[in-house]
Amino acid sequence: MLPPGWNAISQDRFAAHGFEAVLADRDPYNPDETIYFSGFRPPPGFIKTLPNLKAIFSLGAGVDGFLRDPDLPRQVPLVRFVDPTLIHEMAQYVVMHVLMVHRGQRFFDSAQRESQWRQRMLARPSRDTRIGLLGLGDIGGAIAISLLPFDFQLSGWSRSRKNIPGVKSFAGESELPQFLAQCDYCICVLPLTDDTKNIMNAAFFAQLPKGAWVINVARGGHLIVEDLIAALDGGHLGGAVLDVFPAEPLPSDSPIWRHPRITATPHIAALTDPVAALAYIGDCVARCESGRALENVVDLAKGY
Ligand code: NDP
Ligand code: OXD
Questions:
Q1: Which amino acids bring their CB within 6 angstroms of ligand 2?
Q2: In sequence order, what are the residues at sequence separation of 6 or more whose Cβ sits closer than 8 angstroms to the Cβ of residue 70?
Q3: What is the pLDDT of residues 218-245, one digit of tens each?
Q4: Ligand 2 centroid to 219 CA: how many Å?
Q5: Which atom of ligand 1 lies nearest, measured to the CA of 158?
């Protein structure tokens, strides 16, 4: 079962990676003979109709779309998609939006629309600007490293302590308040789990410095939209960039579309590259078939 856009991929492409694939909503298949499953947000209950699976391969780095299924077979390894192209694109998205805000690009765009030559200094130099990443895993760590050359003050919050040169590490719930108090930009790259659901709420925003920006590229379920809008309208937050939403597609009547201080994009910070994904799945299948250990297997107890 593959996302839209993948239907054009021919069987030859799968065969080149050593497996035969069926598109569950297009091709006939025998559930008993299906030994691997790959998808992004399969309908809950679907995977349990495949009784002989050896492994499940997520087409996304996030696996919340699998873990929401109460019937997910927990004895079958679930593998996350960990891919350099996806990671680079996530870093590009975040670096671009941080720099757009930091450099005041919206101001210059509006001056150009009025054919006005309006010079303006940066609000503050990067050395005095603090950027914090919620989540310092494969993607959060890469974003931090991509931001290093710009001379920002960088930090990250994770469950376990990290040691990334130039990035201050905060760990665990007890260090979240200290972390938030020093984030002029707070960028969410956490997996969606029971512990991180709704983490960005009114109390969370209140702990950020006045004028802070929030960037959410993780999942919509991390953020309470009404609380964000109240923090923006109340003047506490400077703005927000959102790529993910509680309901996707974002309904056309959502206030997010029209909010003057929210930039919204349609979950495109990084889209899974089919070529890279097929190579990844091919490698996973080869590992399984030759008895080698799978990498990037989700720890179901942690939920990521
Ligand atoms: P990883 O599993 O590599 O990293 C997750 C990070 O979050 C780790 O640093 C982990 O800490 C930390 N973390 C998890 N739970 C907690 C917690 N309760 N408290 C503190 N820290 C916590 O994930 P990725 O970096 O690969 O991906 C992150 C998410 O990005 C995905 O789950 C997905 O939802 C989203 N995503 C969005 C995309 C988009 O297009 N918008 C594209 C790709 C991914 P520790 O290291 O200590 O375990
Ligand atoms: C992912 C995503 O998790 O695209 O990879 O959201």
A1: 60-62, 81, 86, 270, 272
A2: 44
A3: 999 999 999 999 999 999 999 999 999 9
A4: 9
A5: 21
